[in-house]
Structures
1.
Amino acid sequence: MAEVSYYVADGAHGLGVGTALLQAAISSSEANGIWTLTAGIFPENVASLKLVEKCGFRVYGRRERMGCDHGVWRDVIYAERRSKIVGVQP
């Protein structure tokens, strides 16, 4: 299992940068035998939540007051992606 995290500069939003980064992380993880990727995302980050879902992640939980952002404790949404090719038995 590995955790993914990505940040896209404001000026690059909507240009496919996040999709390219996440797809590269997925390809790299599968090439290295990693079966599960996880991500923790602030609930207000709707674009990131949509991106991980588009790339095959599923939301599996929410933890309250898990991340501190500029001195404010925030909830975190957790998502995971299980590979369809790593760990598959013939």
2.
Amino acid sequence: MNKKQLWNLCRIAVITLIPVAFSPLIIPKGVFLPELMGMPYVLWVGILLYIVLILITWVGTLVHPDRWDN
């Protein structure tokens, strides 16, 4: 996979994850269980999404088409 394909994959992943993060799949009405280490569902899924977005951003900085050290 070349850098342009990875860049497009990063863009698609972020564009897909943002609406999913605010959908009822992630933020269900009145659901606090299951808990993980005392944290409610919405909080630990939000933290997981945040980590995934940080990783996608890091990969995106490495494969960006206008990066100076091609």
